Amino acid sequence: MTEYAATLYGINNTLYRAGTPVNEPHALARLRVIEDEYEFASTTVGQTVAMGVPIPAGMQLVGGFLYFDALATSTTIAVGNDTDNDEYLAATSTASAGGAYLNLIASMGEPFTTAEQVTVTLAGATATGTLKLVLFVAGY
Hints:
Blueprint: H1 11-17, E1 30-43, E2 48-55, E3 60-68, E4 76-80, E5 89-93, E6 98-101, E7 116-123, E8 127-139
Antiparallel strand pairs: 1-8, 2-7, 3-6, 3-8, 4-5, 4-7
């Protein structure tokens, strides 16, 4: 086993070094990409859009990006699921074109026990423009 200069080790590295089996979804998993896009056309506040295919049970969401046009002054978009509309990204301003990284780390990385449909929810004002979502999921 190669030794590194580091004296601190991540959880999976510690398990590996001790000869303990590493939880498969957390190490050496296959990475898949789910991508979808939605065109808002004077879409009203409070609308929720299901994006991409549902993430199967056993897979885990490990990251993602949201890209958007300038949808309208005062608009925000949150990324979540059917039970928590901002599980992965809290309401983010979409008044100017840009992007955001799905950043709620406590909500990512654990395998889903049931299929998970990712959603985006519009708030603040009526919106017009394009939204793209890219999700990174891992598992076998």
